[in-house]
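so im writing up the methods section and need the S-adenosyl-L-methionine-dependent methyltransferase record in one place, dumping it here so i stop losing it
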Amino acid sequence: MLTAQWTRKLPLIQQTAPAKLAARLIHTFLDDFPDIDTEQYFVIDFCSGAGGPTPLIEKTVNEARARAGHQAIPFRLSDFHPNLDAWMPLATHSANLNFIPQPVDATDTLHAPPLVVSKTSSMPNSTGDHKSIHLYNLSFHHFADADAARIMASTLTTADGLAIIELQDRTLGMFLLMAGEFFLLFLLTIFWFPYSPLHLFSTYIIPVLPFVQAWDGLVSCLRTRTFEETLALAENALGEKAKLVSSENTGIGEKVTVAICGDWKFVGVRRLHTWPFGYMNAFLGQKRL
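--- predicted struct ---
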């Protein structure tokens, strides 16, 4: 159900599927790397689960790059518990989507597989000739503060870029939208999963699925960090305070914030994905050359 909510567009209240909105943002983010077309970059998706929105994001990003005459960027799925049964079929649909078969612990840089670690890292397992960008799709909020701090320190040590994408925040409007998801699933399930007895049973006979989805959404809202809170994790990892460069309102409720901390530039992006209260919140980090 979560993958469907990422990859399918709701009529009237969404202009595009959230995954495509995220893909456009990531495409712009990648283009901002000055050596993106001269160096070999990999986008490593952490906490991939069964794949989530990443296959559609990869497809959308690389189609846009192909239209612009640029080389494709390989994406790699990864997880602490690799779901190879789900990933292998996904990888057959794109030459630029593959996976890391061994477990990947985002908090453990010393034992990370070589593909995760950029050639610019000082870690001893930096053995490749590539650069890496670490991606977290709707997963960073799952981590407690201590683990999130370790992940941030790991990323800023081993990667050249970071993209954290969340579809929720701690606003009253988002709480109302998540509460309404209980009723929304009664409308959608029959159209999205008409041939799935499990989905139909757990929605219309014993409505476990709508309750779990709504509850999970509300808890996710509570756990989602603001740009400032995530930036504080980066400041602690880098050992210095960030300097706010700009903060601009780009639409109703939409905003772009830019900060510099050490060798890194961080950008916070807030964009509407579901009318009237659903905003995508992205935390983007780029190591400056």
